[in-house]
Every structure is written in structure tokens, then in C-alpha cells.
Design brief:
The chain contains 11 helices and 21 strands. It is an alpha/beta fold. The chain has one domain: Alkaline Phosphatase, subunit A (3-Layer(aba) Sandwich), CATH 3.40.720.10. It has an 8-stranded mixed β-sheet, with helices on both faces. A 3-stranded mixed β-sheet has the order 8-12-11, with no helix packed on it. A hairpin with a 2-residue loop joins strand 2 and strand 3. It starts with 11 loop residues before the first helix and ends with a strand.
């Protein structure tokens, strides 16, 4: 990255003054980005949302067949839109099979927005890739049982389903006007907690667990060789999930690095009920322990979900909330109420019903949340030096035709299949086979390249590395070889720099979308 930026040339302070805000002095950064917002969704593979980009089945504003679903949004790509690397298209809106799978990928639409959940287990996702043949998704990861919303049996081939721009219209419109990657991967194969921990620390090896004698089955099924391979709960949080192993992470996370430099930050999660009474237990109704990874570390946990003591301390370290908040605090900071300002680094987790997670949510509910949030961010005075990153914690077992590059081996014969051909690297741990499945990555910023697809190989820890590099934080493990319990993938993460043009901002315009349809309202 280039030399440090103390201010940008875009007049942020002047814009803030016009809006009646007093922004604090921005910390020195290596790019013009002074405010990073990471919106972290749930359980989507790249092909599931972008497999046929930029070709949707219905590009015009009227139905072309009797099967055109009511209310579905037409999508016509902009001229000269780039194509996605590696996808074979038989026809517009049709995703071809690039494997020996007997079940071809099939299109879902708005009438199929609520689907069953698939299988994203560490072992099963590896099995689905079939040593590079990418042929066993339907047989291995498709949802089973009954859809809890429609009460219909789950499709035994569900994991081969995908949406296009007629349904996930907002995502495609953001891609059209900003930048996406088609080689961005989960750091490891596996589940929600693993994805969240990798986002903020780049590692899932754990030193401290709960009492195995009280939860032997949970520990045996979730922790292999000291490494997390399934969802576990924080031993520090008032609201763990029932029946799960309870762990305390002992490595550093990016919050520790930001605190050491005095950089403001916060994790804002929509299902947190702020606790306004110190000394009492948190309200757990609706809260999912898996969706706040900072709760797994003693240094950044807010065990009782205490509300910030005042708006002015949101994002700061000297407060009872310890950087962990509900979404009301994000709105307070964005609107600069009570002296609050938006932290330099903001992580946003939607309420469970709006994360996009199959069964628990759906693409349309997710779209409404994303568009409302991003519209508000673009209208704020922070937009001029902001980058918004949209990505996901794991693939949910949805089909993706690209075999991930294996950058970290694992030789655990009980759960590993596509890893294990090479010895572990020095300092590496078993049961961290990765990279995992391809995930969507969208970068929205005045400095994002316009209508651009980046092909560089990156992963979840590339987001972590961007934060580390932009604020000159150093690495999770430091410059020395990793001590026991620490082996962060940030050391090998690819750069997100290819999605930006820091020399000349290409996206000074603000893109306003309709939160229901995802269609463009204005771009000016």
C-alpha cells in the first residue's frame, strides 16, 4: 500500500460541518479509507448468488413466459459488464455443470426464497468436492428433513440451487456499480463459528475448553486435536447455545490490535438486547452466541451485553460495553446522536431473520436489511472516506464449481479427505483444512473500481489483513513464529487492494436502491 494518508482530498470535514457534525481527527491510515464497515452475512456460496452473473434469466421489464414469478425484478446488465471467471454458461441464466455431478445446478426464484438449511460440516464439505471432481454436493450437503416455514420436505438436491439477478437484485446492482471478487474463499471448510473466528483472528485452534466431563459428546464432536471443527459456544457469554462445547479463545483478535493503537471499533449485532442494569444477566431471547465472535475472547467480551454508558463512548475501550453492541448503537453513531461518531472499523451483523441464512432467513429479507443499511451509510458524511465490505461466514454447503486452493494441509484421517497429501507446515495445526468454499465478496466505496471483477485469490482473513495494513496494526501473531495456540492465516492472506483505485476515486456518485426490489432508484 502507499504512503500514509492523514486526510483525504474529498473534503470530509467540510461535509461533516455542513451536516452539523463534529468528527474526531481520523487516525493515520495507509489508504484514503478512514471508515471500514464489514457487513457479515450467513451461509452463501459464490455460485449460489453470482454463478450466472451478469446474465439473469429475465433481463427485460416484462414477463417472457407464464412461469415468470410475480414481483420478480428484471435485471439487464450494464454495457461491458465483466464476466465471472470459470463459469460455463449454456444460456443466459443457466449455470452449467463443471463436474461429474449427475444433478445439474438449477435456478431458484422469489417463490423459492425460503429454503431448507444445507449441511456445512467440516468433513462433509470436503467430501462434496470429491478430490477436485466437485461432484458430490447433491449427495452430501443438501438439506434434509422439512422446511420449517413451508412445511414441505427438503429437496434432496437442494445444494445445487442458485439465484440470479432477478432475485438477488441488490447484490448484482452493487456488483455492477462497484467491485466484486470471484476468487474469494472461506478460510477453512466448515461452519458459522469458524468463519466468524477466522474473520477477526485468522485462527480456530483453541487452548481452553469447558469441563469435558460435563459435555464429553459436545467436545468430541466439535473440537479435534485442539481445533474447532463445528459450532461451539463462548464460555464467557451469558447466552451459550444448549448442548455445545464451551470455549475461550486465547489468541489475539483484531480488536486487541485496534485497541493497542487506540483505533475506535465495534461489533454491532441486531439480536443483542442491551443490558442497562450492570450486575444482571443478559437477556438471551433471540440472541445467537455464534454471531458475535469477540465474545469468545476475554479481552473483548461483554458477557452481560451491557449497553454503552453513553453515546459518546461508542467504539472506545474505556466503557462497560467493551466494543460489543446492538444495532441501536450503530444507528446512534451513524446519526451522531449524543456525541457519538461512527467507529473507524465497524462490523455489522443483521438480526437472524435478515442474515440470508437458509431456513432462518432468505435472500429477500437480507436484501431489505442490506439496502436500508447501505443507503444510510452512503447518505452519511462518512461515505467520502468509507469502504463497505459485504461477505459471508461460510457457504452452507451450497454448490460452487471452483475447487478451492488448498493452502493449509490437515492429516486427520477421521475428518479430512481432500487435505492430507502434504505434511503440515511448521506451526500449523491439524483440522484446519483450507481454503474452503468460494464466497461472495462485494466492495462498495468511492475508491472501489467501477463494474469490476477481481480475480486475485483472497479469503476471509484478507479482510482482517486489510484492517491490519490500513491502520498499521501488525499481524495477529507478530513478527515471531506463532506460539502455541496461534497460527493466524493473516500471514498468508491475499490482498484486497486489486478491488480499489486509491489514486483516483471512481465512485463519487451515491447508488440508492429500492430495499424491496433491489432495483436502482438513483445513481448520482
Amino acid at each position: 500500500m502507499s504512503a500514509p494518508y492523514r486526510t483525504t482530498a474529498l473534503g470530509v470535514a467540510a461535509l461533516a460541518a455542513v451536516a452539523g457534525l463534529t468528527l474526531p481527527a481520523a487516525a493515520q491510515t495507509t489508504t484514503p479509507i478512514k471508515h471500514l464497515v464489514v457487513i457479515f452475512g450467513e451461509n452463501i456460496s459464490f455460485d449460489h448468488y453470482f454463478g450466472t452473473y451478469p446474465s439473469a434469466l429475465y433481463p427485460q421489464g416484462q414477463a417472457v413466459s407464464s412461469s415468470f414469478p410475480a414481483g420478480e425484478t428484471a435485471f439487464k446488465p450494464l454495457a461491458n459488464s465483466p464476466t465471472i471467471n470459470g463459469v460455463l454458461q449454456q444460456a443466459p441464466g443457466s449455470l452449467a455443470v463443471e463436474s461429474a455431478s449427475a444433478i445439474p445446478p438449477f435456478r431458484l426464484d422469489r417463490s423459492n426464497a425460503v429454503t431448507c438449511d444445507n449441511d456445512n460440516a467440516y468433513k462433509d464439505e470436503q467430501t462434496a468436492y470429491a478430490h477436485g471432481l466437485v461432484s458430490l454436493f447433491a449427495q452430501t450437503t443438501s438439506g434434509t428433513g422439512t422446511n420449517t416455514t413451508t412445511h414441505a420436505p427438503c429437496d434432496q438436491n437442494l445444494s445445487m440451487g442458485y439465484y440470479d439477478g432477478n432475485t438477488v437484485t441488490a447484490m448484482w446492482n452493487y456488483a455492477q456499480h462497484f467491485a466484486i471478487s470471484d476468487n474469494f474463499f472461506d478460510t477453512e471448510f466448515g461452519t458459522t463459528v469458524m468463519g466468524h473466528l477466522n474473520l477477526i483472528s485468522g485462527q480456530t485452534h483453541v487452548n481452553v475448553t469447558g469441563d469435558p466431563s460435563k459435555e464429553p459428546t459436545a467436545v468430541a464432536g466439535a473440537i479435534q486435536n485442539g481445533t474447532i471443527i463445528a459450532n461451539v459456544s463462548s464460555a464467557l457469554d451469558d447466552c451459550p447455545s444448549s448442548g455445545e462445547a464451551k470455549v475461550t479463545m486465547t489468541s489475539k483478535n483484531v480488536g486487541d490490535l485496534l485497541n493497542a493503537k487506540g483505533i475506535s471499533w465495534g461489533w454491532f449485532y441486531g439480536d443483542v438486547t442491551p443490558n442497562t442494569t450492570p450486575g444482571t444477566k443478559a437477556t438471551c431471547t433471540g440472541y445467537n452466541n455464534h454471531y458475535d465472535p469477540f465474545q469468545y475472547y476475554a479481552s473483548t467480551a461483554n458477557p452481560h451485553h451491557l449497553a454503552p454508558s453513553s453515546p459518546a463512548v461508542i467504539g472506545t475501550s474505556a466503557d462497560q460495553a467493551n466494543h460489543q453492541y446492538g444495532l441501536a448503537a450503530f444507528n446512534t453513531a451513524l446519526q451522531a446522536q449524543g456525541g457519538a461518531t461512527l467507529p473507524a472499523v465497524t462490523f455489522i451483523k443483521a438480526p437472524s431473520a435478515s442474515t440470508g441464512h437458509p431456513q432462518k432467513s432468505d435472500p429477500l429479507s437480507e436484501q431489505t436489511f442490506l439496502v436500508n443499511t447501505i443507503n444510510a451509510l452512503m447518505q452519511s458524511p462518512y461515505w467520502q472516506d468509507m469502504a463497505i465490505i459485504l461477505t459471508y461466514d461460510d457457504s452452507d454447503g451450497w454448490y460452487d464449481h471452483v475447487m478451492p486452493p488448498i493452502v493449509n494441509q490437515s492429516a486427520d484421517a477421521t475428518v479430512d479427505s481432500i487435505c492430507g497429501s502434504l505434511p503440515l507446515a511448521t506451526g500449523a495445526y491439524n483440522d484446519r483444512c483450507g481454503y474452503g468454499s468460494r464466497l461472495p465478496l462485494v466492495v462498495i466505496s468511492p475508491f472501489a473500481k467501477n463494474n469490476y471483477v477481481d480475480h486475485a485469490v483472497t479469503d476471509l482473513t484478507s479482510v482482517l489483513r486489510f484492517i491490519e495494513d490500513n491502520w498499521s496494526l501488525g499481524r495477529i501473531d507478530g513478527a515471531t513464529p506463532p506460539p502455541a495456540g496461534q497460527a493466524s492465516f493473516d500471514q498468508i492472506a491475499g490482498s484486497l487492494a486489486g478491488l480499489f483505485d486509491f489514486a483516483a476515486p471512481a465512485n463519487l456518485k451515491k447508488l440508492t436502491l429500492n430495499p424491496t426490489t433491489g432495483a436502482v432508484v438513483s445513481y448520482q
